[in-house]
Amino acid sequence: MIEGSVLGMVDGVHTFFKDGLRLDGRKKDELRPIKIKAGVLKRADGSCYLEHGGNKIMAAVYGPREVHPRHLQHPTRAIVRYRYNMASFSVDERKRPGPDRRSVEISKISREAMESVVLKEQFPKTVVDVFIEVLQSDAGTRAAGINAAAVAMADAGIPMKGLVTACAAGKIGGEVVLDLCKEEDNYGEADMPIAIVPRTGEITMIQMDGHMTFDEFREGLELALKGCRQIYELQREALIERYKSGVEGEE
């Protein structure tokens, strides 16, 4: 990967490719480097630290636990709460602390992507709280947050149908590519994040910002699904490593 790459300009138009490769050295269907580690916070029931390209994400899960205030309880199932937040120092220009419209929207979409896999009927009158903190942002933070949240929920032992995995495809310079970096996201023509449950094939989230033809959309969906399958294996490996570490520590 070429660090600090910037977009070129030809006749006032942004260029995204050089010698058949993207400007960070990747192929069209290649993910950015990903690192996932489960069980990083002792005081959370489940946690995960994830790096995806330049993104650095911390996820913490608490619960199932009693709902406060109690009037929010559901008598027959648990509720899932999801809070996505970008740290003030996570972007180049300091962000104003606290929730804004974008973080509220991402929290809602991400919660909907996650809660459909949780077996909520197994623990009524409780809540599962998911906290996502973006420590460093480099495009694709909602997908990275969902991936970290899924690992943290599994680490917490939350009963689920399967892990949720998210990835984005997009369109840059007229070409459909996988996993946009910051410059591609800022200057490209479209961005399409999706979330799936690889175990069942269920799509739990799909969004698109920009414009694609139907054929481009179909190509982007196939690329995003391919990326999700690759990330799913990394999620599983992180949880297996966490389990192995716990067993070895008891010996």
Structure report:
It is an enzyme of class 3 (hydrolase). It is found in: Cytoplasm. Its EC number is 3.1.13.-. This protein is an alpha+beta fold. 29% of the residues lie in helices and 32% in strands. It contains 4 helices and 14 strands. A 5-stranded mixed β-sheet has the order 5-6-7-9-8. The protein is globular and about 55 Å long.
Describe the secondary-structure layout:
Elements: E1 8-10, E2 13-15, E3 17-18, E4 21-22, E5 34-38, E6 46-52, E7 55-66, E8 79-86, H1 101-115, E9 126-136, H2 141-155, E10 165-172, E11 175-178, H3 182-187, E12 190-197, E13 202-206, E14 209-210, H4 214-250
Parallel strand pairs: 8-9
Antiparallel strand pairs: 1-2, 3-4, 5-6, 6-7, 7-9, 10-11, 10-12, 12-13, 12-14
The counted number of beta strands is 14
- The number of distinct helices, counting runs of at least 4 residues, comes to 4
CATH fold naming? Ribosomal Protein S5, domain 2
> From the structure provided, what is the oligomeric state, counting identical versus distinct chains?
single chain
Q: What is the number of independent domains?
A: 1
Task: Strand order, main sheet: write it out.
Answer: 5-6-7-9-8
Structural class: alpha+beta
Q: Look at the structure and give the CATH class.
A: Alpha Beta
Globular, elongated, flat, extended or rod-shaped: what is the shape?
globular
Question: Nearest-angstrom radius of gyration?
Answer: 19 Å
CATH architecture label name: 2-Layer Sandwich
The helix fraction, in percent, is: 25-40%
